[in-house]
Amino acid sequence: MRTPGKAKLRDVVYGLYERRLARSLSPDRMPRHIGVIIDGNRRWARAAGDPVSRGHEAGATKITEFLHWCDEVGVKVVTVWMLSTDNLTRPADELEPLLRIIEQTVEELTSIGQWRIHPVGALDLLPGATAEVLKGAEAATQNAQGLLVNVAVGYGGRRELADAVRSLLLEEAAKGISIEELAERVDVEHIAEHLYTKGQPDPDLVIRTSGEQRLGGFLLWQSALSEFYFCEALWPDFRHVDFLRAIRSYAQRERRFGT
User: Which residues belong to the active site?
Assistant: First the structure.
């Protein structure tokens, strides 16, 4: 059992290390766009003997903290994966509380008033109430001047690519372009213009918590040249110092952009 004195000393040492780490970061080496795969909410709750919903609530609180950290270091875009298309098949007694937590979180982010909220995902797969909250958040924050926050709900990388190709085909068909003509001239840029994140820079850094070292379908197209940082901490336990370490790791890498 830790004594109060030892705990206080630990906090002081931790604070000194955190400040030194923050000072070591160069503004010239900051990622413009960070993608984050929030993972570990359920394990966090189960380890504490709590209901799964308690883990999701703790994870939702961490999202707001994380966005403030990104704002502080000058990141311009953040994509937060809150719910995958696969998650939509979870049992109703877990999915429905999770959707309510997501709705509340998005409403809280909207109320802050300084960030632009942009939903990314297949909104048609979501319950009507959830989709309306996401659409309302985007409309309410469209003139905000701060961080652009992509809220990935009902998101799957394969679904995004299918939607992009479908949108491209429909757009070209409306112009009277035949399939043969389109096949001859379609390129990478044509598809990129129909992604959920069209017009945005691709993520420079993708962070995943909970020790899992895989993308799971997150931003499959956009992350082709991204740097990856895998952290052992479960998402509700992800600390400011963990964030700073991820930024430091990114800054220390020599980006080769596929070469």
Answer: 39, 87
Compute the Cα dihedral for 202, 191, 213, 81 and give only its sign.
positive
Tokens 């993708």 identify what position? 206
Coil vs helix vs strand at 221: coil
Supply the Cα-derived Rg of the chain in whole angstroms. 20
Residue environment code for 187-199, b if the CB has 16+ CB neighbours within 10 A, otherwise e: eeeebbebbbbee
Q: In the 3-class helix/strand/coil scheme, how is 55-87 assigned residue by residue?
A: HHHHHHHHHHHHHHHHHHHCCCEEEEEEEECHH
Q: What is the pLDDT of residues 68-100, one digit of tens each?
A: 999 999 999 999 999 999 999 999 999 999 999
List the domains of the chain with CATH numbers: 31-156+205-251 (3.40.1180.10)
